[in-house]
Design a protein that fits this description.
The protein is built from no helices and 10 strands. With 157 residues, it is mostly beta strands. It has one domain. Strands 1, 2, 3, 4, 5, 6, 7, 8, 9 and 10 form a 10-stranded antiparallel beta sheet that branches. It is globular.
């Protein structure tokens, strides 16, 4: 991995971080032992630049797979962007783009909808209390859907 730049909460920041697996992907197991989420990562990048208290943030990741319960996502590329993310308050506008080469699930009602390549484009906001998707699209070979949502982090309602 490499990192270069400066973070100045009272001025301008420009920090870039790049991580890459030299051989096989890095495998992480997250969450509780009863319901782990296993992630195999080949690389990740992050950049924060602009005003120190609320910089522009770009994050990218390439994952070989993500496995949670009976669902597996393969060849996932993720991009997250914010035009001004308040780091101290952990809040701000966010856009997310996800592209999966394939998604397999044991959820019978969902399985026919996620055949082939699956993409998600989401725009909304994040705060300490909630995640809001104001506008989003989900697409696959069998699905072309619009989505809006609000998740309260205290109880995941």
């Amino acid at each position: 991995g490499t990192a270069a730049g400066i973070i100045d909460p009272n001025g301008a920041s420009d920090l870039s971080v790049e991580l890459a697996a030299k051989g096989p992907p890095v495998v992480l197991s997250l969450g509780a032992a009863a319901q782990p989420v296993t992630v195999a990562i080949t690389g990740a990048t992050a950049r924060a630049f602009g005003g120190g208290k609320a910089p522009i943030i770009d994050i990218g990741a390439s994952l070989v797979s993500v496995v949670a319960g009976g669902t597996r996502v393969d060849d996932l590329v993720a991009e997250i962007h914010s035009d001004g993310f308040d780091i101290q308050d952990r809040s701000g506008p966010v856009t997310i783009k996800l592209i999966a080469g394939g998604l397999n699930t044991d959820v019978a009602t969902l399985a026919p909808l996620v055949t082939g390549r699956v993409t998600a484009d989401l725009a909304g906001s994040v705060s300490k209390d909630e995640i809001v998707v104001d506008q989003g699209t989900l697409r696959s070979d069998a699905l072309n859907a619009s989505v809006t949502s609000k998740v309260t982090l205290a109880d995941l309602a």
